[in-house]
Design a protein that fits this description.
2 strands; alpha+beta; about 90 residues; two-stranded antiparallel ribbon; 4 helices; about 40% helix
Length: about 90
């Protein structure tokens, strides 16, 4: 597996997601799918998270984290503002 985190790889390969979308595994790791950008696609957030919740425990985290300075300009957000405050303004 690459040392680079999956969200930045997904952003590079698949492009940005809308507010109602997520990067989702084609074959979820809980069902044997690889944890790899090659196993990701952009999909509807509600549908994907509903299906994932039925398969295993679900964890929601901030995938942007330390990469915010790189991602903020791409999505035209203020890089000086944290990801959490950006989300609460939506």
């Amino acid at each position: 597996m690459s040392e680079r985190a999956l969200p930045p790889q997904a952003l590079t390969r698949l492009g940005p997601v809308r507010a109602d979308q997520v990067y989702g595994f084609v074959l979820p790791p809980v069902l044997g799918g690889p944890i790899s950008v090659d196993n990701l696609r952009i999909t509807d957030a509600h549908t994907y998270l509903t299906l994932q919740a039925q398969q295993s425990d679900i964890t929601i985290s901030d995938p942007v984290g330390a990469n915010w300075d790189q991602i903020a300009p791409i999505i035209r957000a203020d890089p000086a503002t944290s990801t959490l405050s950006q989300a609460s303004e939506s």
